[in-house]
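Encoded backbone
================
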Amino acid sequence: MNKILVTGGAGYIGSHTVVELLAAGYEVVILDNFVNSSDKSLEAIRKVSGKNFDFVKGDVRDSVVLDNIFKAHEIDAVIHFAGLKAVGESVQKPLEYYDNNLISTLHLLEAMKKAGVKKFVFSSSATVYGETEVYPFDESFPIGGTTNPYGTTKYMQELMLKDISATSDLQVITLRYFNPVGAHESGEMGEDPQGIPNNLCPFITQVLVGRRDKLSVFGGDYDTKDGTCIRDYIHVVDLAKGHVCALKKFDSGLRLNENGGYFDAINLGTGKGSSVLDMIAAFEKAAGKKLNYEVVDRRAGDIAVCYAKTDKAREELGFVAEKTVEDMAQDSWRWQSTHPKGFNS
């Protein structure tokens, strides 16, 4: 494989993945509409990687844009990041989430079929497991029972991909992320959420840098070591490298079905859990200052413990996350402290 189409490639995970793809010798075409990203991330990719790539501004729901990309480029595989991703917002705007996330994937698959492109890496999420008190989360667990429209769109897309690959030559690896954290070690690119952050760590760094007054820790009475929720935090650069491993898996001789199709779902995490207070301590150490936070009531839908079983990623992809929580905090703080207003600094 040589040329990879990366939808949503200007976003947080997408941009870091493009850097790793370029480092691994792939050519890249990015498609992004900047709804959840900044065009300045493209400059950062070029600066960090020292390499160039093709870019198309457009919406993945636009079939004309997609067809033109596949006509202009000999695409070998697609990595699909594009989509709305805020859990809370999805509860308020479910129609937008179903329209954006489902329609974009359908149009992308139709364009791939017309162009004869078979290899597809899908950006999924641990939210597909729904509410379960059993951990670590194993790929063999039933999926569904999701608690918000965002998670449900990921679940529905996985079902679509599984059904289509069962009756065609579409080859799919769906990667279920746990909690991406961190930034590129250069400090040139990192997480730059639009509006109020929906995830813990960018909220922490924005409080530490003075953009926000206080962090609310939702729940201090869970049955965990310190009463706060435990999650599996994975460095975004490790996560990006997992996508390169997935692409290489296509060349390793897949166990194709009778139609030439393939589907597999694989967790990307560290296999270790860290509490909210663990993360606060790591970020305080990285920043050299105390964080202003308060423990408040639990948030609906949160479970006490969530971390990945990672055996399958190691066995199937040869992937093992290497970076520590300390690395995540240090890299995040390097990015945020030098870019207090994100890419608009």
User: Anything to note?
Assistant: The chain has a mean pLDDT of 95. The first helix runs from residue 12 to 23. Residues 44 and 188 are 6 Å apart (CA to CA). The first strand starts at residue 3 and ends at 7.
